[in-house]
Write the structure tokens for this entry.
Amino acid sequence: MKYFGTDGFRGSANETLTVDHAFKIGRYLGWHYGAEQNKKARIVIGKDTRRSSYMFEAALVAGLVASGADTYMLHVIPTPGVCYEVVDGQFDCGIMITASHNPFWDNGIKIVNSEGFKMDEDVLQKVEDYIDGAFDIPLATGKDIGRTIDYMQGRNRYIAHLVASANFSLQGVKVGLDCANGAASSVAKPVFDALGADVRIINNAPDGLNINVDCGSTHIENLQRLVVEQKLDVGFAYDGDADRCLAVDEKGNLIDGDLILYICGRYLNKQGRLTSATIVPTIMSNLGLLKALEVAKIKYITTGVGDKEVYAKMREQSLSLGGEQSGHIIFGDIEKTGDGIMTSLRIMEAIREEKESLSELARPVTLFPQSLINVTVSKKDETLAAPSVAAAIAAAERELGDNGRLLVRASGTEPLVRVMVEAENEDDAKRVAQTVADEIEKVAQ
């Protein structure tokens, strides 16, 4: 597709992604779900805290009501909150304005269908065709013009849904939260407060420019410091739109998405709640996770990178847990997308029910040192097909044997080839990765 990638239409605000794009997206969706289907469209819209989100919200709303849609505004809310409310409120579709963990000058528009899934590609293709002027659609007039509804009750229902999903008390538990100055700022603390936790919160004062700046899941060191200095029981860090969660144990150690998959997967399996005793990690998940799952007698099916790929495999196989190292974790029995705050609650459930600390729950997993090198390449497929690159990859795989792993893949969104190596020690991982990367760079020149 020309505009919409695996995570929506994303780019620098008013450069790659412009107000005009947003207006036209609103125009098409309002018409598609309204006039084309001979009814009044109902569409719900949310945003994160970056400065341009307000601008894009105004443009989208203008386009939607100009095409006759009634537009319900959730204001600042995590992406999974929009996905939840689309279904809960029986809307035709939902729109989220966010660039997730990207810096404030980037933004994006994600569209989800009436089931809360990422929008069907045939609809996205029609949106793109309309943006490019392939056809025109009429403006609504008179009583057919749409209206806007301040829909704060939708956000309140989402908070209530999160609280209701936790059948336990956190009374006396000291919890640290890093909200990345993003969408979690309006939701995370009320949820943990309602459960009785002693909450210590950082980076929850968004100003439009500080989203993801030295904070949140991409800068976990701030939360690690908070947990250690204030002797907290656990900490959780979210990204800009709060669909990711990384955790910190009571000792200040990072608990990444792979460890979260293990902790939650093992707990759910013991409870008989892990469908087919199987989880869905990605090809980037650490070899140490896979070995630990085998010891725990939990099966796994690996899939491509991206929460879209993970959920597609979960749906195909009717599985209940999957996710990524980055902290996108999907609990398929209760949601259709990654939800950072929900992930926090599921981790807390495991801690409370198992009566063990987070560090104790993670102890069976020994993560392999990992080295990742990105090589800039203009012709990705040709470079990877070169005989010398294939030979370098084969030699590296022979050297690693069963005690390591090599993954070489072309980026789906950037002119990069990514080389990832896992080995029993960090020096070997770096050395093998650099050898393969050097050969790729030589061929690419």
